[in-house]
Amino acid sequence: MEFDFADQQPKLLMLMYGLVAFVLVVGGLLLLLDVVPAWFARRREAQLIAASVGGGPLPRRRKQREGLFAFFFLLPTLLLLVIGLVVPAIRTTLLSLMDGTSTNWVGLRNYGWMFSDDSIFRVLINTLVWVLLVPLVATGFGLIYAVLVDKARFEAVAKSLIFLPMAISFVGASIIWKFVYAYRGDGDQIGLLNQIVVSLGGEPKQWLLESPLNTLLLIVIMVWIQAGFAMVVLSAAIKAIPGDIVEAARLDGVSPWQMFWQITMPSIRPALIVVVVTLTIATLKVFDIVRTSTNGNYDTSVIASEMYNQAFRYGQNGQGSALAVFLFILVIPVVIYQIRNLRQQREG
Amino acid sequence: MTTATPTVAAGTQKTDGTPTTTAGRVRKRLNSRTATLVSIVIAVVWTIPTFGLLVSSLRPEDEIKTTGWWTAFTNPQFTLENYQQVLFGRSSSSGQLAGSFINSLAITIPSVLFPLAFACLAAYALAWINFRGRDWVYIAIFALQIVPLQMALVPLLKFFSTGVTLGGVTLMPAWDLVDEQKFAQVWFAHTCFALPFAVFLLHNFISQLPGDLMEAARVDGATHPKIFRTIVLPLITPALAAFGIFQFLWVWNDLLVALIFAGGGDETAPLTVQLAEMAGTRGNEWQRLTAGAFVSIVVPLIVFLSLQRFFVRGLLAGSVKG
């Protein structure tokens, strides 16, 4: 029962190396950008003096200096993006056309496999259910709560409590909810859900093993986390509605119901779209919850977790890459929709 | 003016929708009472799962495994034994989360600092330095936001393990990292994946700084690095805080990147990886899972609660302004 802190030293040393590297890279870059232009400036000054004394030609001020600065400011970012994102993304696309060990080209076979294999088809259906339900339920709940809490006392506290799960990791949240869904064969139940079921006279169940239901129970976890995000953004949008519009509507004697549909909803529409789009993208990539709760077993797998399994557990790089590419393709229309909306907003 | 004020006040009171009849007033108060009540009830329900976890983590092992956590109120028995075990326990099954906690820190701190600094520089250049193709660079970085990080995982791992060879020429040798050196891979991956959003968010802030300020500094002969350090950086501290918190929560809570680039070994696995492992292999050891989960939650919770203001501001800037 002893913990050896000496074991931890190499890690802390590594952390220190990291921090030193950070200081060297960033500090060095800034220093370079400071010193080099200063040196040029001094040389130019000397040239100017020499020119005025000796009557030689005046040196021309160089115009591309701006571009040079920009280049160095952007260098680390562009370099990292190309190495870490652009090139890998292109390679993944190529890998998706190759077999499991990335040696032979197989054309579109991996994509054919995706839609013909029953278990993978199931994965696609699950992902569809996630993508339909999470944004809808989380946004709906967030909106209702934002409207509700707008008039309430203790607004800040109530909002914080809903928002709090945002800080909890998907892994932590999954454990929290696994505990809620926990099952004991005999005697007292330790899971809250089974306890409620039992006290209502039902039979306790192994919730996470029951196929279509378990996917819904995992979706509850995601909604629990993301509703706070929707609520905060929408609440801010509601508060930003100009007071005189609300006032004018009140003067006209509209009912709260009409007020909601004819004043609130149109005013917060941009925020609503942003929330739905953000949640849709986040849901498409959901991985941690499925992996922690069921490891993708019992028909709960989704694209992102299946991609991990194929590429990193079964060594099927081709099939894993195909799933990743498919994920990317699914994201594109959502983003295009958002960009079009933003443009309309700017023009309107 | 003095005579006008009361009438205006009276006018607004009326337009405020304040009902004139007693019944109406009662109904309105009831409405807001109901709203308060309902919203508090929902907030409590929302918190119950987390609360149950916290209570359970403080109960003795056989109590957790045989009775529900709600019985702890009628039969209070509390202990810190679970935390002791899960943090410092010697047996490998206990998790040894103290080590993972340090791993999480070692992964998170540089993974926040690097993208923050790089994105800041890039955002400044994109907002305030005139160069050809600026808009295209910005659009390209913006567009990269939509590439799911799943697209980069397999090749990036290969990049670390085998290096880069082009036509038989080794452009970069394999990193060949072992044990705690693997942190560098995780930093690298997190930095790359964070940059598009970071540049976008910080650009939103930096481009809104007053142009006159920059112009004045330029006229005074300040160079771009000087303007960046002395004018821009101090002004965008709230934005830096917002992105810092964002990235901190993201990295600390991340499972996927850590799983792939840090591996599952005790030397590098952060809390999330270790916990996910425990949940998979020892799913019924609730005394460890509850305590472990709370250990992983507590740091982001503190960060979040103390800096919520910045976080919300960043969230709104990142999503609403678009």
Report on this model:
- Chain A is mainly α.
- Chain A folds into two domains: 5-109, no CATH class; 116-347, MetI-like fold (Orthogonal Bundle).
- In chain A, 74% of the residues lie in helices and 0% in strands.
- In chain A, helix 10 runs antiparallel to helix 13 (317-347) and helix 12 (303-313) packs antiparallel against helix 13.
- The mean pLDDT of chain A is 84.
- By secondary structure, chain B is mostly helical.
- Chain B has two domains: 4-82, no CATH class; 92-319, MetI-like (MetI-like fold).
- Helix content of chain B is 71%, strand content 2%.
- Chain B has a two-stranded antiparallel sheet.
- In chain B, a hairpin with a 2-residue loop joins strand 1 and strand 2 (169-172).
- In chain B, helix 11 packs across helix 15 (308-319).
- The longest helix of chain B is centred in the first third of the chain and has 36 residues, at 22-57.
- Chain B is flat, with a radius of gyration of 27 Å.
Number of domains of chain A: 2
Question: How many strand segments of chain A?
Answer: 0
CATH architecture of the largest domain in chain B: Orthogonal Bundle
Binned, the helix content of chain A reads over 70%
Distance between the termini of chain A: 67 Å
> What is the number of independent domains of chain B?
2
Q: Write down the CATH topology of the largest domain in chain A.
A: MetI-like fold
Give the full name of the CATH homologous superfamily of the largest domain in chain B. MetI-like
Q: Unreliable segments of chain A (pLDDT under 50, ≥5 consecutive)? A: none
Gross geometry of chain B: flat
Shape of chain A: extended
